[in-house]
Specification:
2 helices, about 50 residues
């Protein structure tokens, strides 16, 4: 934490923005994955 405060604010904000961006992308992929798994399971159980 001390290192983050000693660095310039611009690079700190950029790092935070990049981390949040990757987190957002990860959450979107997770959402797509769960929706597709749900559809697949619904299709499997609908046949039986």
């Amino acid at each position: 934490m001390q290192n983050l405060l000693q660095g310039d604010l611009g690079s700190s904000m950029l790092s935070i923005a990049i981390i949040l961006g990757w987190l957002g992308i990860f959450l979107v992929f997770l959402r797509i994955l769960t929706l597709s798994i749900k559809r697949i399971l619904e299709a499997i159980f609908k046949k039986n």
